[in-house]
Amino acid sequence: MATYTLHLAHLYGDLLNTYGDVGNILALQYYAKKMDTELTVDVISMEESFNPDDFDIAFFGGGQDYEQMIVSRDIPNKKNGIEQFISENKPMLAICGGYQLLGHYYIGADGEKIPGIGVLDHYTLSQNNNRFIGNITIKNEDTGETYHGFENHNGRTFLGTDEKALGTVISGHGNNGDDHTEGAIYKEVFCSYFHGPILTRNGELAKRMLLKALKNKYPDADLTKQTNLQIQPTF
Ligand code: GLN
């Protein structure tokens, strides 16, 4: 029996789940176990309510434009809950399509405007007959951590004023191919175009999210062991 429990909301996990993004949840469960924590998961999808009080951590994966359009019709119903979750500094990981839907809008590959919920201040444009595909490496200047992954997206995302990049592009395309940023950080929300999935190759980020969720839920607990957990570097 684990000493701690955390409950994860997998937002639209039945619709936005490309390129093995669900592996992020397996990675979180793997590291949670090492942190004496049981991580339980519920998919919250179309026509279901999202109560932020029920969850400690959230994951929102990527998908095709078609599925994103479907989700964009339902997600306004969850906007208040997501906004509250973020304002309470609960950690969330949003990848690719999920990342785009947290922003203002995404112009799909066929020029269609897919509205986001604007809880983060970025927007995403399209590109003509091109996708950013390939291996990517970025570095987060604040933590000194280097993240490796694989990107595959049409969208070109531009960050808002109160968002920081997840990292600076060392190789690959990143948010838009121009400004050398990749992903976004706002409060405890981590966004990225990395598939692969990001947390299986970059355990430091998984640890950061789990530790924050544990500190939120168990403010008086001694989390020394969890804090000292060593993550094997990846290449
Ligand atoms: N459909 C979006 C794009 O092409 C998101 C892709 C994804 O989630 N991999 O930019």
CATH fold-level assignment: Rossmann fold
CATH architecture tag: 3-Layer(aba) Sandwich
Query: In this structure, how is the largest beta sheet organized?
Result: 6 strands, mixed
Structural class, please? alpha/beta
The neighbouring-strand order within the major sheet is 2-1-3-4-14-13
Q: Give the number of DSSP strands.
A: 15
* Bound ligands, named by name, code or SMILES: glutamine
How many angstroms does the end-to-end distance come to? 33 Å
The CATH superfamily is identified as: Class I glutamine amidotransferase (GATase) domain
Short descriptors:
235 residues; alpha/beta; Rossmann fold; six-stranded mixed sheet; 7 helices; binds glutamine
Any overview of this molecule?
- The active site is at residues 96, 195.
- Forms a heterodimer with MurT.
- One of its GO terms (biological process) is cobalamin biosynthetic process.
- This protein is α/β, with parallel strands linked by helices and 235 residues long.
- It has one domain (4-227): Class I glutamine amidotransferase (GATase) domain (Rossmann fold), CATH 3.40.50.880.
- Helices cover 26% and strands 29% of the residues.
- It has a six-stranded mixed sheet.
- A hairpin with a 5-residue loop joins strand 5 and strand 6 (113-115).
- The longest helix has 15 residues, at 203-217.
